[in-house]
Write a structure and sequence with these properties.
It contains one helix and twelve strands. It is about 0% helix and about 35% strand. Strand 9 and strand 10 form a beta hairpin. The chain has about 210 residues and is mainly β.
Length: about 210
C-alpha cells in the first residue's frame, strides 16, 4: 500500500483541487465549508506507518470558506482557475441553496456564475480551456430529495455578472455526479459520427 490519510474526520468531503503553490482545497459538504490543506504532505508510506495509516506529521488545515461568508450550506464541487485574470475558485452548492459562485484566492466573493435556483443541484464541476464552465445536475426531487433524471449544463465565463444562461448539453442521466474536461484530440474517436444516446424511460429515474 502506498497511500496515507491526511484527515479521517471529514464530513462528506468532495473531490479536491490543488492551487498553483501546492495547497489542497476540498468542499466539506456536511460541514458547510471549504477546507485548505497546506504542506507538508506525505511522500511515502513510511510517513504514515501506523495501523490507521494517518500521517504522523499532518498538513496545516484551515478553513477557506465558511457558511457565514458564502451562504452555501452544502458546498460540493470546486474548480481552481489559475488566472481569471487573478487566481480564483468556482464553488457549487448542491442543495442549500443550489448555486454556483466564484471566489478570489482570499475567499472573497467575485461574482455569481449561476444564480440560486437555476442549477438543478449541481455536483461535479470543471472548466474547459476556452473558459466554459461545465457542471453535472442531479435534479433531486424537492420534496423527497430522491434522484430524478439529471443532466449536464454549460456556461461560458464572460465578464458579465452573471455571465449568461446555462446551455443544456445532456439529459436523462441517472445520478450524474461528476464532470471531467479532456482534450478530445487525444482520442481516436470521430465524435461527429457517434449516434445519439437513446432516450431514457422517465420511470427509470424518478418519473421526470
Amino acid at each position: 500500500d502506498t497511500y496515507c490519510f491526511l484527515d479521517k474526520g471529514l464530513r462528506a468531503p468532495g473531490m479536491p483541487v490543488l492551487d498553483a503553490i501546492g495547497d489542497l482545497y476540498l468542499a466539506e459538504t456536511a460541514g458547510a465549508r471549504v477546507l485548505r490543506f497546506s504542506p507538508p504532505f506525505p511522500r511515502s508510506a513510511r510517513e504514515c506507518a501506523n495501523p490507521e495509516r494517518l500521517v504522523t506529521t499532518p498538513p496545516t488545515k484551515s478553513v477557506f470558506l465558511t457558511l457565514a461568508a458564502s451562504g452555501e450550506a452544502t458546498p460540493a464541487g470546486i474548480v481552481y482557475l489559475p488566472a481569471d485574470p487573478a487566481p480564483s475558485f468556482i464553488v457549487g452548492s448542491v442543495l442549500i441553496p443550489p448555486v454556483i459562485r466564484q471566489y478570489g484566492a482570499d475567499g472573497g466573493l467575485v461574482r455569481t456564475l449561476v444564480p440560486e435556483g437555476v442549477p438543478r443541484n449541481p455536483l461535479g464541476l470543471d472548466v474547459g480551456s476556452d473558459g466554459t464552465l461545465y457542471y453535472a445536475e442531479l435534479n433531486l426531487d424537492p420534496a423527497t430529495f430522491a434522484p430524478r433524471c439529471g443532466g449536464v449544463a454549460a456556461v461560458r465565463l464572460t465578464g458579465a455578472d452573471p455571465p449568461g444562461a446555462p446551455m443544456p448539453l445532456g439529459k436523462d442521466l441517472r445520478f450524474p455526479d461528476g464532470v471531467t474536461v479532456v482534450d478530445s484530440t487525444r482520442f481516436r474517436v470521430d465524435f461527429t459520427k457517434l449516434p445519439a444516446a437513446p432516450a431514457l424511460d422517465p420511470s427509470r429515474c424518478g418519473g421526470e
